[in-house]
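Structure tokens please, single chain.
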Amino acid sequence: MIRIGIVGAIGSGKTYIAKQFGFPTFNADYEVNIIYKKNRRCFKKLKKEFPKYIHSLPIKRKELLQIILNNKKNIKKINKIVHPEVRFRMNKFLKKNKYKKFIILDVPLLLEKKINKKNDILIYIKSHNKEIMKRLKKRSNFNLKVFKRLNSFQLPLEFKKKKANFIIKNNFKSLIVKKNVKLLKKELLKKYERNSFRHRNDRPFN
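Here you go.
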């Protein structure tokens, strides 16, 4: 199994591009949403930590936004409660797909939380900030202050770009993006086949 990590700015289109590969994908944001809707263990911990804001399950988005707006440090407190559950789910996903050729990790803090491993393939999604902000502001739940606070926990984009093995430019035009993904997927599959052939030849003869 070869692990592919998708990295880039918030709103750069990481999740959309991850889907285009067609490989099994762990989407951390999706899992977090499920946790907020259904996970009683996390709910109890969050309610204990933020009794003024958290009242019932499912946890409402506006409650979480209020917690973040109240104090930037609350983001770390939320992460400390939620991230272990996300890790647990990610490990289950990896175990389930261990015999697949490729899997994708669509995890916002992949590098920040050191979830990536040495041999992972990193793909950086390059998008113009002006276009990102234009699209984010169209979202009904967008809050600039919350965005800035969440963004402050991200590593510099230049660092992520340097770490990446490949770069995909996302101009938010579907046909061009799909074409770029198709070309990269073809290259990755060729690399996998070469490595598989080499490892088979490395086996000693009986």
